[in-house]
From TrEMBL:
<dbReference type="InterPro" id="IPR019821">
    <property type="entry name" value="Kinesin_motor_CS"/>
</dbReference>
<dbReference type="Pfam" id="PF00514">
    <property type="entry name" value="Arm"/>
</dbReference>
<comment type="similarity">
    <text>Belongs to the TRAFAC class myosin-kinesin ATPase superfamily. Kinesin family. Ungrouped subfamily.</text>
</comment>
<feature type="domain" description="Kinesin motor">
    <location>
        <begin position="76"/>
        <end position="419"/>
    </location>
</feature>
<feature type="coiled-coil region">
    <location>
        <begin position="446"/>
        <end position="484"/>
    </location>
</feature>
<dbReference type="GO" id="GO:0007018">
    <property type="term" value="P:microtubule-based movement"/>
</dbReference>
<keyword id="KW-0677">Repeat</keyword>
<dbReference type="InterPro" id="IPR011989">
    <property type="entry name" value="ARM-like"/>
</dbReference>
<dbReference type="GO" id="GO:0005524">
    <property type="term" value="F:ATP binding"/>
</dbReference>
<dbReference type="Pfam" id="PF00225">
    <property type="entry name" value="Kinesin"/>
</dbReference>
<dbReference type="InterPro" id="IPR000225">
    <property type="entry name" value="Armadillo"/>
</dbReference>
<dbReference type="InterPro" id="IPR036961">
    <property type="entry name" value="Kinesin_motor_dom_sf"/>
</dbReference>
<feature type="compositionally biased region" description="Polar residues">
    <location>
        <begin position="17"/>
        <end position="36"/>
    </location>
</feature>
<dbReference type="GO" id="GO:0005876">
    <property type="term" value="C:spindle microtubule"/>
</dbReference>
<keyword id="KW-0547">Nucleotide-binding</keyword>
<feature type="binding site">
    <location>
        <begin position="161"/>
        <end position="168"/>
    </location>
    <ligand>
        <name>ATP</name>
    </ligand>
</feature>
<feature type="region of interest" description="Disordered">
    <location>
        <begin position="290"/>
        <end position="310"/>
    </location>
</feature>
Length: 909
């Protein structure tokens, strides 16, 4: 509870004045003509704002104080004193005595007579004489409070005084007989109703009586124990159990007051007490919406854009005016003379004495204010030391007989003047009304929705019905037209039948004679139809058969699909075999091509030799053999050929041959030379052999120790060895051994060249391969290479190439198996060594030999380890003769062993 001294603008009071003599101010009581003015001014300012309105309260009003902050405005409890006129009894009884009080209203002072010569002076906020009108009392005491309530503050107007001094007169007069008698309650309500808007504001009233700490509802007498509820936060008290009647006009309020008064009377009769023993409380709740904050029902017009605005709760100010007609302040006789027990007396006085104690405590700034001691103080906690604007009117009578009570009343009023309140605006957001408004809005929307839904459903129903009608009409139309059509066709049909019958009848009548014929025609037709039918039937049967056939074929196909698959596999295998065969054949072809090459090579040589017809300069060829013989014959000049031929004719071949065995060495040499010369001519060769010349030459090789004879004889044998028959002859007569032996003893490279040439020729014979090798032919050839003469080497190379060619052919034909005999006899190192010999005749033969050897897988390993593969690769890349290059390439690529080796060596091929 706020309390303490304030900045009072009205009335210097306090006890300091007590006992002072103010005779100068002892003037006759008069009505202050200014008293009504401040109230009017205050009213005009009330709409400006609570604080400013309060600040501008005039000195004549009970309102006032200075605004400090928003938390509240100091507002002291204002106290007025009212003196009742003498009543009839007093006029008589006190006629000889002076009044106990003397008023100085203009000074707002009251003098209380102590005795005939002494008075105490008291100052009040207002001093109202016995002549003060009800209107003036209202304006001075209550009006500022009412205005505060209308501005949103709580307000209290209370009357305190001895019974019979006019509390009820001041507060509760209804003024039914005389308008001027209307008391504060009636006038306050008049002002309130005049100020509020019945549309946006509300005024409601409760009327209660407090007796012996029991709160009774004067508007509903059955409700006789109403509890007080305090809001712990705001400290506001409320009486939820009390009847709250909304007031919309003055008349209904007056009725309510009357009703309350009647109930109060009845209740007091029932309780066997007087109204003076109870406190009456009128509570007026004024709720006002603050203009400018109220959305003014816009949302209720269905304006949805204002929904957000409408969700803002309206701001309201709630003022509560409490008018309290207290019980008589006189002390109840504790002796029980009035029929009360002591306990009852205590209880009756409890609230009032508690009020006195609280006011004392507040006046003295005591730390403890015993508000909770009684129901009255609990109810009035806001009125004294709280946030309400409070105006107290103390009523006194003039009779000196009641001087003591009057003095006590005055003292009560004096203390009350010290109580300081802190006025607070009761402004809040009205969530309830917002909720109500939203409820209304919601209800409207629900209604609207329902209406729309209904309209929608009706529309759907209508459309459905329409559709239904249309459907049934369409169905009807359809059925009708169907029926019409049916009837029409039936009619047509019947008519056609009728017409046909008529026609038939007519025909029968007309063509009676033709009937038989007609019948026949009909029979023909039937037959035709039957034929067609049977044809159709057979066709159908055929089709059925076909279908069955296809079905079984399909089944067959499915069965054969599996076998077809295996067939495919088989075929694939066959295909692979074919591919293998093809590869093999290709190998053979390449080999044949190489043989052809060899043959063409040899043919070339032969041709060259024949073309030259004399000693050539090219070493290594057979022509050179002849050249060795010729010089001896050239002695007779150009006629040489002719002379030999002449000799041949004159002497005869037998004679010449016999000379080969002559005693004389020179003769033998000459003879050999002659035979050799003859053997160089192809035409003579057969004759020489037939005459035993070859045998003689061979014998000579073995028997003679003369190197010239050896050389010339070997040359002759070499020439004769070009013929296949001669080759066999040479072999059968141990030619290889003789030639080998000759080679072994020879010192002249030309001798070796002749011997090597002879063996090389023999090497070209397919049939003699094994025998030749078996008799050391290959070894003999290889033995001659150590002389190093290129002519000899060329012959050796030719022999090896010939041998390799024949071997290759034999292998391809299957008559030879196993690796090459050349390799067996150790020819490979020399072959490899001379594969890139600078002399092209040597190199060519060796290249060919390598190609032949390479064509057979059986030789591959030896060739790889002997380094021949490297040579083969080189040949395939660098050989200047394209045919040999191609042969080498094909040979390489058709050998899996070579390819594997190349891959291993990471040689790209
Ligand atoms: P209280 O309520 O204090 O007991 P009342 O209001 O009942 O006193 O007044 C007692 C009597 O005095 C009533 O008959 C009333 O009409 C009369 N009375 C009181 N005050 C005045 C007044 N100011 N002028 C004329 N009559 C008065
Ligand atoms: Mg009364």
């Amino acid at each position: 509870m706020a309390s303490g001294g304030g900045n009072y603008r009205n009335g210097t009071h306090r006890n300091s004045l007590k006992g002072t003599t103010t005779t100068a101010t002892d003037k006759p009581l008069s009505v202050n003509s200014n008293l009504s003015k401040p109230a009017l001014k205050n009213k005009s300012l009330s709409s400006v704002g609570a604080s400013s309105g309060l600040r501008k309260s005039s000195p004549g009003s009970l309102g006032g104080g200075t605004a400090k902050d928003d938390a509240g405005v100091p507002g002291r409890v204002r106290v007025a004193v009212r003196l009742r006129p003498h009543n009839a009894e007093e006029s008589v009884a006190d006629a000889d005595f002076a009044d106990c009080v003397e008023l100085q209203p203009e000074l707002k002072r009251l003098k209380l007579r102590k005795n005939n010569w002494d008075k105490d002076t008291y100052e009040f906020d207002e001093v109202l004489t016995e002549f003060a009108s009800q209107k003036r009392v209202y304006e001075v005491v209550a009006k500022p409070v009412v205005e505060s309530v209308l501005d949103g503050y709580n307000g209290t107007v209370m009357a305190y005084g001895q019974t019979g001094t006019g509390k009820t007169y001041t507060l509760g007069r209804l003024g039914e007989e005389d308008m001027a008698d209307r008391g504060i309650m009636v006038r306050a309500m008049e002002d309130i109703l005049a100020d509020v808007s019945l549309e946006s504001d509300s005024v409601s009233v409760s009327y209660l009586q407090l007796y012996m700490e029991s709160l009774q509802d004067l508007l509903d007498p059955t409700n006789d124990n109403i509890s007080i509820v305090e809001d712990p936060k705001s400290g506001d008290v409320s009486l939820p159990g009390a009847t709250l009647v909304e007031i919309r006009d003055q008349q209904s309020f007056l009725e309510l007051l009357r009703l309350g008064e009647a109930h109060r009377y009845a209740a007091n009769t029932k309780l066997n007490t007087e109204s003076s023993r109870s406190h009456a409380l009128l509570m007026v709740h004024v709720k006002r919406s603050v203009k400018g904050r109220e959305p003014a029902h816009s949302s209720e017009n269905g304006n949805s854009t204002n929904i957000a605005k409408s969700l803002r709760p309206p701001l309201v100010r709630k003022g509560k005016l409490v008018v309290v007609d207290l019980a008589g302040s006189e002390r109840i006789d504790k002796s029980g003379s009035e029929g009360h027990t002591l306990e009852e007396a205590k209880s009756i006085n409890l609230s009032l004495s508690a009020l006195g104690k609280c006011i004392n405590a507040l006046a003295e700034n005591s730390a403890h204010v015993p508000v909770r001691d009684s129901k009255l103080t609990r109810l009035l906690r806001d009125s004294f030391g709280g946030s309400a604007r409070t105006s107290l009117v103390i009523t006194i009578g003039p009779s000196p007989r009641h001087r003591g009570e009057t003095a006590s009343t005055i003292m009560f009023g004096q203390r009350a003047m010290k109580v300081e309140n802190m006025l607070k605006l009761k402004e809040e957001f009205d969530y309830k009304s917002l909720a109500r408004r939203l409820d209304i809005q919601l209800d409207k929307m629900i209604m609207e929705h329902e209406r729309k839904q209904k309209a929608f459903e009706d529309e759907i129903e209508r459309i459905t019905a329409d559709a239904q009608n249309q459907i049934s009409e369409a169905e009807r139309n359809y059925a009708d037209s169907m029926e019409k059509e049916r009837l029409k066709y039936q009619k047509d049909y019947m008519e056609s039948i009728k017409k046909l019958e008529e026609k038939w009848m007519l025909n029968q009548q007309k063509q009676g004679g033709e009937r038989k014929e007609h019948m026949v025609f009909t029979a023909e037709e039937v037959a035709e139809v039957k034929k067609l039918l049977s044809k159709e039937t057979s066709l159908r049967k055929a089709a059925e058969e076909e279908v069955n056939n296809l079905k079984s074929q399909l089944a067959q196909l499915k069965i054969s699909e599996a076998s077809a698959n295996s067939e495919i596999l088989k075929l694939r295998k066959m295909l692979e075999d074919e591919a293998y065969q093809k590869e093999k054949l290709e190998g053979e072809i390449s080999m044949l091509q190489s043989q052809l090459l060899q043959l063409s090579f040899e043919a070339d040589e032969t041709r060259r030799r024949l073309d030259r017809g004399g000693p050539g300069k090219v070493p290594g060829g057979l022509d050179s053999l002849i050249s060795q013989v010729r010089p001896q014959l050239n002695e007779s000049g150009n006629g040489e050929k002719a002379s030999i031929a002449k000799l041949f004719e004159q002497v005869g071949l037998q004679k010449i041959l016999s000379l080969l065995e002559a005693e004389d060495a020179d003769v033998r040499i000459h003879a050999v030379k002659v035979v050799a010369n003859l053997a160089a001519e192809e035409t003579n060769q057969q004759k020489i052999v037939e005459a035993g010349g070859l045998t003689s030459l061979l014998v000579l090789l073995g028997s003679s120790e003369d190197e010239t004879i050896h050389r010339v004889a070997a040359g002759a044998i070499a020439n004769l060895a070009m013929n296949e028959t001669n080759q066999e002859l040479i072999m059968s007569q141990g030619g290889i051994s003789l030639l080998s032996m000759t080679a072994a003893n020879a010192e002249d490279p030309q001798t070796l060249r002749m011997v090597a040439g002879a063996i090389a020729n023999l090497c070209g014979n397919d049939k003699l391969q094994t025998k030749l090798r078996g008799e050391g032919g290959i070894k003999a050839l290889l033995g001659m290479v150590k002389c190093g003469h290129p002519d000899v080497l060329a012959q050796v190379a030719r022999g090896i190439a010939n041998f390799a060619k024949c071997e290759s052919r034999a292998s391809t034909q299957g008559s030879k198996t196993g690796r090459s005999l050349l390799i067996e006899d150790g020819a490979l190192p020399w072959i490899v060594q001379n594969a890139h010999n600078d002399a092209s005749p040597i190199r060519r033969h060796i290249e060919l030999a390598i190609c032949h050897l390479a064509q057979h897988e059986v030789n591959a390993k030896d060739m790889i380890s002997g380094g021949a593969l490297r040579e083969l690769v080189r040949i395939s890349r660098n050989c200047s003769r394209e045919d040999i290059r191609t042969l080498a390439h094909r040979t390489l690529t058709s050998s899996p062993t070579f390819l594997a080796e190349l891959r291993r060596l990471r040689i790209d091929y």
